[in-house]
Amino acid sequence: MKAAVMGYGTIGSGVVTVLDTNRDVIASRLGEPLEVTKVLDLRDFPGDPVENKLVRDYQDIANDPEIDIVVETKGGVEPAFTFVKAMLESGKHVCTSNKALVADKGAQLIRIAREHNVNFMFEASVGGGIPIIRPLLKCLAGDVIEGIYGIVNGTTNYMLTKMANEGSDFDEVLKEAQDKGYAEKDPTADIEGHDAQRKIAILTSLVAGRQIDYQDIPTEGITKISAIDMKYAAAMKRVIKLVAASKKTGDTYSARVAPLMLPEGHPLYHVDDVFNAIMVHGNMLGDGMFYGSGAGSLPTASAVVGDMVDMARHVDKNIRLDWEEEKLILADPGDDSYRYFVRTSDTKSDIEKIFDSPEYIDAGVEGETGFVTGEMKQSSFDEAAGKLIDVRSCIRLA
Amino acid sequence: MKAAVMGYGTIGSGVVTVLDTNRDVIASRLGEPLEVTKVLDLRDFPGDPVENKLVRDYQDIANDPEIDIVVETKGGVEPAFTFVKAMLESGKHVCTSNKALVADKGAQLIRIAREHNVNFMFEASVGGGIPIIRPLLKCLAGDVIEGIYGIVNGTTNYMLTKMANEGSDFDEVLKEAQDKGYAEKDPTADIEGHDAQRKIAILTSLVAGRQIDYQDIPTEGITKISAIDMKYAAAMKRVIKLVAASKKTGDTYSARVAPLMLPEGHPLYHVDDVFNAIMVHGNMLGDGMFYGSGAGSLPTASAVVGDMVDMARHVDKNIRLDWEEEKLILADPGDDSYRYFVRTSDTKSDIEKIFDSPEYIDAGVEGETGFVTGEMKQSSFDEAAGKLIDVRSCIRLA
Questions:
Q1: Least CB-CB distance to B139: which of A21, A270, A306?
Q2: pLDDT tens for residues B88-100?
Q3: By residue range, what is the domain housing residue B384?
């Protein structure tokens, strides 16, 4: 079985390493060797094992009748989409780790794959090496998924863990994460929640079977979380995590990416550092959780190779996958209900004019009041919070 | 698509409930309805929805050309084996929740299924509703699995959690678990570790691709764990869990079921009550963990229905599964290395004549000494422990 890799970066080179390291066991599971014969990249890699397999033009792969399986690890929507589409149309199976591509074009690529009796797989696009997409689609095929709650971004989870443990402030921890290589030079996609937004869009589309546009999901990152917020969280015996969530709401879903204060005993409470975890609630299963390394070259490449083996086993068969292109309109995010933690310079008597029975939190911070509201709709909370003199911080509770 | 259920007990009736409750979503995922038309059970169920679908003779199902999928939820090796074999030989796909059957006859049934171009699936046989077998076989198809560590028995985990939290003793907690329906009247299979032994035998066979006889796995239950042991564990900031584990050791595996003292920060540390969790270490993935309800009618039935849908999607195709009948000889359990916690009436000076630099644990217990050894081979430890006047307790550390 011959394969090609498009994009020889962190993940792409990891795929070559996994196939090489575990060559024998993969051959035995498959009944034949699985070999990368072409690698698409515009760069040269002198001395690298793939040096003589490099091609510059994706058509060289599309037109190679020996290649059945193509891996896309370039990232970004274009030119990845053009490349992947061409491969599927040439009758090749494609798997990818590219969440931007899957969130934007997943439904369309699934349709094209079906039309050409090949498969398009993307286990590595969410949760890195953590098996989540296959369990969700296959093991839970008999369940109605009523909720998904995930810590799906390792960079921000590392930062929040550091802030909680060391009392350090956001900027300080960001610099340290960048120095350690856990955060990119331009960390926007991680810290503003855009990465998590695409991942929860993919998962929610899969369980709904319809296209959910990631832009429709209200998203807050962690840039406003401060050392003072962490103090309050500690006083409440809670931790602050960036949670990407979606929930069945009538015939549709509501979805949101935002920092959440989680109580002790919550399954995501102990998920620290760069680890990811995704909790799923099925109407029959109840709660299930998947935990592991959400990023990194080899864990993510491991998931890509899992897809490659599955595709090699189904080389003559399209596996049905329900993610239609028709767009699903999400529920109004103003109708979501939460309890809210708020910090303000208002006095208690002013607060009590606006909110029913606030629960005050003493974290030993001078010159402000921290309190938790009762459960209320997002829209009602927004209206009420607008009446406060200021809102120094506002974090939802889970 | 028509199906039959053999055994209308807790799980079998759960399967009918899941198919009924989620009828529409399953039909839409499958492109056609999935309907149970026959139920094999010797009992009558007057007034039950399956009342008119009951059959007494398994041949009525084997000979029904309309039925493509059969669920086995009777439990036990016989007559389940005879029934399942007949179904596969009649060209029907079979899935089961029966760990005794799978541990004993899994490899053979997989061969028979392959010979008849049908599938034999058993996601529900380990971890109840927790997806573990499919992730292990599919998502980690590119990994060499180097270790599996699982809390796979809800009854004993509930009991150990109670003992740790309430200081109560084994017998007391067992009675309570029986009253609540978490432990059976004859609790032997759970508390002696036999249930966990079969489950780790299945998982290890799957990653090794060879038959592992469960009887070969050294197994200790929790019957010797006392309230005093829990006191020491607390003093060491550890918890005691019944862990079923296997580890790649050269060309084979070592496996064991035994209580383990886990340190804070261990992924299984916070797995409490009736919950199950299975940690997997892949040479590329690193650590991954699967967590959820390990038992119960609906969660387990949810896993069975996941298999049914997968089989319905592969009704014309045997999915390759490597579990050969050839027996794998496990590594000598005497070669396993651990640190050991020991309680004895020996004096410290006698202990130090036998063990190098023991670490003493003060749990405020009079009339005995508790200590932890350095890391040593099981065989060396057994020899050394034989020189103590008595061993009141001995628990391995993780």
A1: A306
A2: 999 999 999 999 9
A3: 333-397
The C-alpha atoms of residue B352 and residue B378 are separated, in whole angstroms, by 18
Instruction: Report the gap between the CA of B53 and the closest CA in chain A (Å).
Output: 22
What is the pTM for the complete model shown?
Answer: 0.95
Q: Quote the number of domains for chain B.
A: 3
Instruction: Please give the Cα distance from B276 to B303 (Å, whole number).
Output: 14
Position A278 in a domain = yes
Please count the residues of chain A: 398
In tens digits, chain A (398 residues) has pLDDT values of 999 999 999 999 999 999 999 999 999 999 999 999 999 999 999 999 999 999 999 999 999 999 999 999 999 999 999 999 999 999 999 999 999 999 999 999 999 999 999 999 999 999 988 999 999 999 999 999 999 999 999 999 999 999 999 999 999 999 999 998 889 999 999 999 999 999 999 999 999 999 999 999 999 999 999 999 999 999 999 999 999 999 999 999 999 999 999 999 899 999 999 999 999 999 999 999 999 987 789 999 999 999 999 999 999 999 989 899 999 999 999 999 999 999 999 999 999 999 999 999 999 999 999 999 999 999 999 999 999 999 999 999 99
Contact criterion met (CB below 8 Å) for B68 and B312: yes
Give the gap in angstroms from C-alpha B227 to the nearest C-alpha of chain A: 24
Determine the Cα–Cα distance for residues B255 and B253; give it in Å rounded to an integer: 6
What the block records as the tokens of A264 is 């002790």
Is residue A150 located within the same domain as residue A179?
A: yes
Query: How distant is the Cα of B311 from the closest Cα of chain A, in angstroms?
Result: 10
Q: Do A22 and B142 touch (CB under 8 A)?
A: yes
**Type of residue at B30:** L
Same domain membership, residue B185 and residue B51: no
Q: Tell whether B123 and B241 lie within a shared domain.
A: no
CB-based contact B282 A302, cutoff 8 Å:
yes
Of the residues A313, A343, A375, the one at which a domain ends: A313
Which of B137-165 are b and which e, b meaning 16 or more Cβ less than 10 Å from the residue's Cβ?
bbbbbbbbbbbbbbbbbbbbbbbbbbbbe
What residue of B is the nearest CA neighbor of A251? B25
* B288·A290 Cβ contact <8 A: yes
Known catalytic residues of B?
Answer: 199
Encoded tokens for A260 = 């959440």
Is residue A258 within 8 Å of residue A219, measured between CB atoms? Answer: yes
A–B CB contacts, 8 A cutoff, strictly below: 187
Distance CA A197, CA A215 (A): 8
Whether A323 is in a domain gets the answer no
Contact residues on chain A for B131, CB-CB shorter than 8 A: 131, 135, 138-140, 288
Residue A151 forms part of a structural domain? yes
Query: B337 and B392 share a domain?
Result: yes
Exposed/middle/buried for residue B367 (C-beta within 10 Å: 0-12, 13-18, 19+): exposed
Q: At what angle do helices A297-313 and A23-30 cross, to 10 degrees?
A: 20
